[in-house]
Amino acid sequence: MFGKGKKEKLIYGIVGLGRFGYALATELAQSGADLIVLDRDEEKIAAVRDLTENAFVVKRLDKKTLLDTGLKNCDVAVVCIGEHIDTSILTTLNLVGMGISTVVAKATSIEHGEILEKLGAEVVYPEHDMAVRLAHKLETSRVLDFVQLSEKINISKLLIPDKAVGKTVLDVNLRSHFGLNIIAIENGNSVIETVDPDYTFREKDILYLSGSKEGFFKLSEWASN
Fold it and tell me: DSSP for 157-196?
């Protein structure tokens, strides 16, 4: 079990190894994070034993079981249970009650999410978020990635539209026309983090932009017309 002594890395607890939980555990492990993982399925736990030695088969998710597995020592606990909403709610309630500083819970519906939020959890909607990202990728082949940070703040990585090549940042004026801010420009091995208004866009420039979904929609329409 992990102790609560001095530690350099955050400890993450993952409850439930469906597709979302397994993908999360894999990504966190690859980043070097310490993990405590719980699931009732022995085969699923066996599959993550190479990611962490703290992987436990549990048949119940009552408070005693959660305490016995050391989840109280986690800095962040993520409830990845989707099928059984009652279990998701009770597990979230117990983890919040144990005093874990950050509890994140997967929701399968708005109503489910509202209950989890009232319990004190940060709520994620994996299926919805993936759908949003896919929709933005499909809108234009130039969108390389899209991340929704909130309802109003989004980050997009896209290939420069053809009609902007040869024009300056000031000429295109993404902020004025679309409400989008340029975070950085990448081209080949070079990255420009402080973009000058006189910078002339080049072919194969990759723009990192922040702004609203409406702004990205407008940019997409402008680029395709």
Answer: EEEPPGGGTTSBHHHH-HHHHH--EEEEEEETTEEESS--
Mark the ranges of the chain whose per-residue pLDDT is less than 70: 1-8, 128-152, 225
Residue with tokens 């994620």, as numbered in its chain: 124
Reading the block at residue 137, the tokens are 């990728």
> What is the C-alpha separation between 21 and 82, in angstroms, rounded?
10
Written in H, E and C, the secondary structure of 31-67 is: CCCEEEEEECCHHHHHHCCCCCCCEEECCCCCHHHHH
Tokens of 12: 């993450």
Q: How far is CA 81 from CA 20, 101, 135, 159, 172, in A?
A: 9, 20, 25, 37, 46
What is the maximum alpha-carbon separation in the chain? 65
**pTM beyond 0.85, yes or no:** no
Paired tokens of 157: 């990585």
Pairing of the two strands 102-106 and 76-79: parallel
* Strand order across the 102-106 sheet: 55-57, 34-39, 11-15, 76-79, 102-106, 122-124
